[in-house]
Amino acid sequence: METVKLKKEFIILGLIIVALSVYLFQRSGDRTRYTLPEVAALTASEITKIEITRAGQSVVLTRKDEQWVIEPPGVAAAPKSVQEMLEALTGLTLTALVAESKSYSLYELDDENKIHVKAWQDGRLRRELDIGKTAPSFRHTFVRLAGDDRVYHARDNFRFRFTGGPEELRDKTVLSFKRPDITAVRITSGNTEATFTRDKGADPGAPAPEEANLWKGPAGAAVNAARLNALLAALSDLTCEKFIPDRGKESFGRPVFSITLTGGKEHSLSIFAPSGTDAGEHPAVSSASDSPFVLAQDQAKTIMQDPGELIETGGKKEEKR
Fold first, then answer.
1. Across the strands, what pairs with 317?
2. Can you tell me the distance from the alpha carbon of 273 to that of 258, in angstroms, rounded to the nearest whole number?
């Protein structure tokens, strides 16, 4: 009897295993029984316009003469920010179907949270999608394609690339030049002014032992070349904290510090005393920016060198009097 009972238990167990295997196979088949939409190929060079809409607010970027501008007001966009958007749009790859229900708020694809993006090639719409939140894997982003109610996983985490507004996307470069081009530097700090000159054939970035002799101060004085070159490095690709709207460049009065750099062309920067409640923000204007802007306190401190500190006497820094 025990043998018969044991055989029945084995048979029942076997039937359960078979039924469970069939069930799991069917569920697996159901999960993969779909075809992902084909995303048309698109290259960065083909895209001429990007429109980003979030909560009813839109930002439009257009490419003009190989430069991207924010419309309106027609100011330059930060190249790195635009490049990151182009990479996300051209590299869009769907990896899985996530949901066919319309519970979009779960994925931040509802009207309140989604980021709607369109990309054109001239007048032709080439890419349109809604961007939701980052997936729990942090390697995917929830998206919806135009004309498709389903939610998909897209490869990579890229929502953050489209969250900036006009101010965040604006190119904040306010001074740019090649250091080897600079042959003269004129610094005015308060009532003190000094001009430093360099031989045209000398490269201020070259770490040569005789570097201190490449620059000359007033009346041929020796110069602390390392310090002067560090100043040029800080200025050569200067970016601001933010721009100051609704004020002209001439509305700040007399600067507390100004510097003019001469080479192939002339570059200038003027820094003014802090104004308003934030004593750490210095208003400034430059030859490369049509708008006044703000420099952070650490930036201003690095740039606002006392001309006397750059001059050496007898191998020693000139003492202040």
1. 312
2. 12
Distance CA 71, CA 230 (A): 36
Single-letter amino acid, residue 98: V
Torsion sign (Cα): 189, 214, 321, 231: positive
Sign for the CA dihedral angle at 10, 11, 12, 17 comes to positive
Q: Rounded to the nearest 5°, which phi and psi values hold at 124? A: -105, 125
| Cβ neighbours of 111 (radius 10 Å) | 11
CA dist., res. 48 & res. 177, Å (int): 28
Which H helix or E strand runs over 232? helix 225-235
Query: 120 with 110: CB under 8 angstroms?
Result: no
Chain segment 218-240, per-residue pLDDT in tens: 998 999 999 999 999 999 999 99
Is 108 contained in some domain?
yes
For 92-106, the DSSP string reads: --EEEEEESS--GGG
pTM of the predicted model as reported, rounded to 2 decimal places? 0.78
Q: How many domains does the chain have?
A: 2
Q: Which domain holds residue 88?
A: 44-169
Q: Is the same domain home to 291 and 215?
A: yes
Q: 151 and 163 in contact (C-beta within 8 Å)?
A: no
Residue 33 structure tokens: 């029984």
151 with 190, same domain: the answer is: no
Token pair belonging to 292: 């006044």
Question: CA distances (Å), 141 to each of 108, 138, 149, 220, 269, in order?
Answer: 10, 8, 16, 62, 43
DSSP assignment letter at 236: T
What would the DSSP string read from start to end of 110-165? Answer: STTT-EEEEEEETTEEEEEEEEEEEPTTSSEEEEEETT---EEEEES--GGGG---
Are residues 308 and 177 located together in one domain of the fold? Answer: yes
> pLDDT (tens digit, 9 = 90+) per residue, 272-309?
998 766 677 899 999 999 999 999 999 999 999 999 99
Task: Check: CB of residue 90 under 8 Å from CB of residue 47.
Answer: yes
User: Which of these, 255, 242, 234, lies nearest to 298 by C-alpha position?
Assistant: 234
Q: Which residue, 169, 195, 216, sits at the end of a domain?
A: 169
